[in-house]
Design goal:
With 254 residues, this protein is of the alpha/beta class. 48% of the residues lie in helices and 16% in strands. Strand 2 (36-41), helix 2 (45-57) and strand 3 (61-66) form a beta-alpha-beta unit.
Length: 254
């Protein structure tokens, strides 16, 4: 008989960029543990509704909310409404992100600003807007930021993405220090190469084979691998873990 884990029952979780890919996997994993999951999306309401249905299919509760994490006033209003409509906020997962690739000498100011505004600025906006509500959760309060192996080791052609994800690590550690006295934890999860619809479509077989050689565990990660790590950090088992970066990369970076 399977063990039913409802350790997050009664908790409200907001997952930014939760409609597709890794974000959707995180929403499902939190819902499976009993959380009420608020799924943020920027433009694809249809995908967010599909994600909500998937959360509900595993026994969770779900609602959707559309806002651009790069728009600070919109974030403030949306999170205020979440607190009012759902009775507070216990868990924040900053997952929303964008990757614009390009080499240093040809990268534009506009491209740099967009990546920073969403990946790093978006996490800051959500943290600032949600922190007072999360502090009310005390020992149940959880913040998890989704960074990347690229933010830890860099990658040619991804300087803005790498810089924004490295910045998230600093944001994580500073936030952890600020909120620890109230029992709230803040950690980061750093995925390696994860299989999503986007990577399946755009990764040539030759590049895939070369990538596999760099992964000691011999496979590309699944969104569930990241989601399970987030669900662990969101739960009571992780109450003494804060300011850490949990690598989910198959050994790409040790």
């Amino acid at each position: 008989m399977a063990i039913i884990d409802k350790a997050l029952a009664g908790k409200v979780a907001l997952v930014t960029g939760g409609s597709r890919g890794i974000g959707r996997g995180i929403c499902v994993a939190l819902g499976r543990r009993g959380a009420k999951v608020i799924i943020n999306y920027a433009s694809r309401e249809d995908a967010a509704r599909e994600a909500a249905a998937e959360v509900e299919s595993v026994g969770g509760q779900a609602a959707i909310v559309g806002f651009d994490v790069g728009d600070a006033p919109a974030v403030t209003e949306a999170i205020k409404a979440i607190g009012k409509d759902h009775g507070g906020l216990d868990i924040l997962v900053n997952n929303a992100g964008v990757a614009i690739n390009g080499m240093l000498m040809r990268f534009t100011d506009e491209q740099w600003k967009k990546v920073m505004d969403i990946n790093l600025g978006g996490a800051f906006h959500c943290l600032r807007a949600a922190s007072m509500m999360i502090l009310k959760s005390k020992a149940s309060g959880r913040i998890i930021n989704i960074t990347s192996v690229v933010g830890e080791q860099g990658n040619a052609g991804q300087l803005a993405y790498a810089a924004s994800k490295a910045g998230l690590i600093g944001l994580t550690m500073s936030t952890a220090r600020e909120l620890a006295s109230r029992g709230v934890t803040c950690n980061a999860v750093s995925p390696g190469f994860i299989e999503t619809d986007m990577t399946s479509e755009h990764l040539p077989e030759a590049a895939r084979a070369k990538l596999m050689e760099a992964i000691p565990l011999g496979r590309i990660g699944r969104s569930e691998d990241v989601a399970d790590a987030v669900a662990f950090l969101a739960g009571p088992e992780a109450s003494y873990i804060t300011g850490q970066v949990l690598r989910v990369n198959g050994g790409m970076l040790m």
